[in-house]
Amino acid sequence: MLFAQETYQIKGTVQNINTLLPIDGATIISKGLHTITSASGTFLIENVTAGTYSLSISHISYTPKTITVTVGPEMKPLEIFLNEKTTTLQAIEIKGKTKKRSYKESPVVSQLVSKDFMIKNRENSLMQTLSKIPGVSTIKIGSGQSKPAIRGLGFNRVVVVQNGIKHEAQQWGNDHGLEIDQYGIENIQIVKGPASLVYGSDAIAGVVDIQPNKIPSEYSFNGEVNLLAESNNDLVGISAGLQSRKEKWFYGGRLTFRDYADYKVPTDKINYESYIFELHDNNLRNTAGREANASFSIGYTTNRITSETTISNVNAKNGFFANAHGLEVRTSSIDYDNSNRDIDLPYHKVNHFKVTNNTSITVNNHSIHIDLGFQNNIREERSEPSAHGYMPKPSNTKERSFHKNTFSLNIKDAFKLKEQHNIVAGVNMEFQDNTIGGWGFLIPEYQRFSIGAFAFDQFEIHSNLHLLAGIRYDYGQIHSQSYYDWYRSTVNNSDGSTSYVYLQRAQNKTLNFANISTSAGLSYLLKNTTFKFNVGKSFRMPLANELASDGVNYHMYRYEKGNLDLDPEESYQFDIDIDHTTKYFSFGISPFVNFFENFIYLNPTANYYETLQIYEYTQNKVFRAGGELRASTSIINNVELEASAEYVYSKQTSGPKEGFTIPFSPPLSGLVSASYQLKNLFFLKQPLFTADYRITAKQDKIVPPEEATSGYQVLNMSLLTQIELFKTNSPLEIKFKLNNVFDTKYYDHTSFYRLIDVPEAGRNISIALTQNF
User: The domain at 7-86 falls in which architecture?
Assistant: First the structure.
């Protein structure tokens, strides 16, 4: 006969004794027992028999601790506090170099973004979440979409990398957002300034590098569920992810769904193209949307090889503000105000499918990294069919469609040459095939091939002085295909006769580009201060829309015309970054000077096409300068104060707009933040109160036909806390956020809708719940 033996749980939290913040990755060991704390500092050991146990708690950054516990039916959750180490970390930096130390030694001006930052500052889109970082802004397209801008430059001048592969969609468009699910991201590195040396063309302004998540611990299984609701656009969303690992095999997956209505603005009327549109209940009509995302990854790891394959799909449907797209509301029979959740015409649908494989192989002194990627991006823009000029009324609603397939291969070898030289050499290859459809033409079908080879050496002059120097060569080819209108237009001949012809909008053309990128920099570590100096030359190949566009862009209500004679953009930049950090105080400054030899710019002309002003792509010289300031202090117990400021000065020094700035130039802006951390408040665990006050100056340095925007001040507040709601080892994490507390009417100069007199969203209350397991 066998009798069951009653078992119990050992659960609790591990926290920093000084800040009361949770400690992620702490190890708890006893005889026959083992576990690791989660991101919230919690742990759980199940199936423990009654008795007395000695628990050893350790973490790489903290002094180890041993406690004795008695396990039984009366046992309460443990609260364990660890002291930070003061000497061991320095030894690790010398022998093994932590990630933080390696970051300081690199002369590249960049910033690391942690999962904790993402959780505390999460907004409606990834780039809105990152916009709190000095020097990073977002070009917003409604409430659910946005695209990155670094130091005033965006579109295809900023590269977004996910799992080592360049994210390739239709990022050239003003109203095209970034198709990436921000949930489940753990680490991001933002590079400010030219980064073509490693990332190739398009990284002329900077890089948003979404790095692969860390490999789960052996024999682990964990996950999280995120719930989100917002008041301004009646958003509801859910995201659930999990990951697990046996000994060598590991896997992960995530599902995300979001549904939102028209968002509200603090005004009841919009003045666009001399028309005044009344807004029903302050709703920006037809800006509702839906998003459904899925991803799955599987990997294998040993001491010598790690390989992970990730499959993801992002699907979204978003409405366009109806009054902006060809002024539809004046003549449409659609009742746009019938429901704020309808997605009526005009709207777009986007589906982005991506497969990536990241493999790392260690062979003797070499670390070889291979990244493979395939992306399929399908974008459809639909609107009510109507006749324009010689074009008769189309028979369907598909105004435009873009279909892009991208194949990518990156190979990189990192190795040491003697002890002081860390050398990295690699090759990047990419092929794009782009097809089009619909009755509205803007850009032709095209294929693009690019290949680049690079090498750089980070030389350790001594332990606190490092020199990085590198060179890269790129070759690219773009082949555009001819396109003729599907309808006849009237053409007046030189002899006075009239012809009815299918006008040719694009021609078969093959263009080749080649360029060299270089970079050199120094980093110097002096006790608590890090100095970085970097100078580099970068380039960007012209895009198909810049070379061969020839059609009406109704989202901007203008006619756009490309230029086949464009040269690649070349940029020269000098960066300085100084960072001083102590236990209670930090200060940093990052000035830069930038010169474009031939900046590509969409210039308005005095000519018109069927009442629409013609904009033509041209090139000119541009001088830019600016930088960021940042400071923080935690001298008051449980209180952290932060302040930052950013400024960019731009001036065209040649061409038809000489003396003017460039489009979407951000104004002087500052952000002051205050955080107050408590240990416990009634039933709330570790509540963190935060207030962000953004002060932005007016922007009257514009380039026609842009209009100046006034300065503004906006206050956002949030509460991040935990509640022991369920019988699990992880408490429920709760985030309350109140954006635009005073419902301020203001215009963000880098917002897409600012161009059509639409202010930013009004007051918004959001609640986010996260349950880890």
Answer: Sandwich (2.60)
